[in-house]
Amino acid sequence: MSDVKNPSFTVSIIPIIAIGIFLGLSIFVYDAEPHMALFLGGTVAVIVALALGNSWKSIEDGITDAIKTAIPALIIMLIIGMIIGIWIASGVVPGLIYYSFDFMIPSLFLPAVLVFCSVVAIVTGSSWTTAGTAGVACIAIGQGMGVPVEAIAGAVVSGSFFGDKLSPLSDSTNLKPSIVGVELYEHIKHMLYTTLPAFLVGLVFFFVLGMWMTSGQNSNGDIYELQSLLGETFVFSPWLILPPAAVITMILFRMPAIPSLIVGVILGSIMYVSVQGANMNDMLQTLYGGYSIDTGSETMDNILSQGGMSDMYSIIALAMIALGFGGVMNKCGMLHSIVTGMMRFVRSTGNLVSTTLTSGIFINIFSANQYLAVIIPGQMFKESFEKKNLHQKNLSRAMEGSGTLTAPLIPWNSSGMFMLSVLSVSPVAFAPYAIVCWLTPIIVAAYGYLNITMDTDKENKKEEVS
């Protein structure tokens, strides 16, 4: 491939401009889904790559390689779709909602969701599993209390990603320090300086927001009505605790996510047949098409009618298109060229941290892959942090703050699409409330400019002095 031209920054930015225009027209003018906009942007990227001298085989490899990296995540999407449907149908989620109504205070609901989802994510090590199980239940409980669904989703996403980042069981939390050679627990401890303040601000924010949103409301009548409907519709048994308990236990023992979730599907199916008295046809239909019910209450029907493998198809299609676009940009050097062009802003420590954060967010937006959003900046800026005698844990913290925490706020990113699918709330709607996700990178940048907890590499300094 010696005849392939090295793309300049100006040429590399052409597909980015094109996809920005297409997405703007699609979302804000025609009120359409972003699928075709991303497809057209990908087409422009392919044309530019061919014009630079890349072969179709090379471009095709870029597309397939990007999608291959996301196959486990796509499989998890399908399984969680089945879990949502079968856990609702079997009574697992309705049981959690039913008994939560007994002691949940509407004004304290949002901060309770933040704490609850944080704990579940730390225990399971998975923001997706937390949002797809505990998050779905929180959405249902909050709707029953009259809390706006956008605020609930913001609390769920904030808690899920905060807990995921601090969990040693999280695959993404293990990935970042391994890229730059930092010990796992040193990386987690260093993140606490930025994520914990964001969490505490979020706790106060949701407390005030909850008090304001529920001020003057009396939702007891609605709660009792919904609780009565649940009691009439489902049979509640102590056995229903078995599916979530089994999944959490398997993940705690470091079992892989996919087999752990499959066990949740199997146990949920058994509960549906044995506890609720469903037949095999009902079970199979629910696993594929989701659960649907007509209780006479529009609120309850909206809460319970969801899930199923087919519910994830549109999200997976969007993920594959977005990943294909990112794959072309990465394989043909355009993504690398753009990130390299951003290096011109690296002068001070604050600029270095901010550029690292901006690169991660940029790649998250235009590659729709949070793994690329941490791998590329990690490789690009490692040497820059070394030259400034900064410990690599500063870099891994910045990678986490931008690459991981901003992913669910982007509608076409795999994390954003997943949250839309399981919570039924658009990232555009819940983003203002997902305070932990957008406040953390701001704090990381501020620490860079103010030189707060920006630890130096003492070993490197000793070698220089020697």
Automatic annotation (TrEMBL):
The keyword Transport applies. It is a multi-pass membrane protein. Residues 161-451 form the Na+/H+ antiporter NhaC-like C-terminal domain. Keywords: Antiport, Cell membrane, Membrane, Transmembrane, Transmembrane helix, Transport. InterPro entries: Na/H_antiport_NhaC (IPR004770), Na/H_Antiport_NhaC-like_C (IPR018461), NhaC_Na-H+_Antiporter (IPR052180). The chain crosses the membrane at residues 9-30, 36-53, 74-97, 103-123, 192-213, 233-253, 260-278, 312-330, 351-376, 430-452. It holds the Pfam family Na_H_antiporter. Its main location: membrane. The keyword Protein biosynthesis does not apply. It is found in: Cell membrane. Belongs to the NhaC Na(+)/H(+) (TC 2.A.35) antiporter family. This is Na+/H+ antiporter NhaC. The lineage of its organism: Bacteria, Bacillati, Bacillota, Bacilli, Bacillales.
